Amino acid sequence: MTSRSTSSRWRSLGRAALLAVAVGAPLACGADVPTPRAQREAPAALDDAVVEEESEHYNFTLESPKVAEVGRESVARLGLTTLDPWHMNLEFPAVLIVDELDGVDLHSARQSKEEALHFAEDGAAFEIRFTPDATGRHEVVGTLRFAVCQTDACLPQAERFAFVVDVEERSRSRS
């Protein structure tokens, strides 16, 4: 892994994660970048491990809670750190889309790059805020669409992710 201060922040993130990388075709930097053609289906989620995915162009990290409580907000965090010589294409209409699902109220199923915690040439960070409204095992699945560039090429990306959260009744002592 590349030793960057921003990537070390993402290495230290907590539980859960899985991801699959889909690479689009190279395009000239600054050109109109179409939606990526290829996407992999999100694999079965790991609910108790930290997994980081490093491509040739960036590192992708997902941190999510292992357990949540009905009616209590929970937060998952996505992190992306570009690897030299690549950088985020700041003009690409990047978006985080979380699939709607039963039993979990998403605070925002769609977030633009302007709504990200961080979106700059060195990478991006998003939060997925959700409140479970039913007990049981829930899988949250989504896609982060963005593009990375270097001097002579840009690559549109569609990073599929998923995580599993076990939702329990809210404890009376914490209510």
Give an overview of the whole structure.
This protein has one helix at residues 5-11, and strands spanning 19-20, 52-54, 58-63, 67-69, 74-82, 87-88, 95-98, 104-106, 110-112, 118-120, 123-132, 136-149, 154-168. It has 175 residues and is mainly beta. Strands 1, 4, 6, 7, 9, 12 and 13 form a seven-stranded mixed β-sheet that branches. The protein has a single domain (5-167), classed as Sandwich (Immunoglobulin-like), CATH 2.60.40. 34% of the residues are buried. Residues 1-49 have low confidence and may be disordered. The termini are far apart. It is elongated, with a radius of gyration of 16 Å.
- State the CATH topology: Immunoglobulin-like
Q: Would you count the extended β strands for me? A: 13
- The CATH fourth-level homologous superfamily: Immunoglobulins
Summed up, the helix count is 1
Give the amount of beta strand, in percent.
35-45%
Largest sheet report: 7 strands, mixed
Indicate the overall shape: elongated
Outline:
It is built from one helix and 13 strands; from the N terminus they run αβββββββββββββ. It has 175 residues and is mainly beta. Strands 1, 4, 6, 7, 9, 12 and 13 form a seven-stranded mixed sheet that branches.
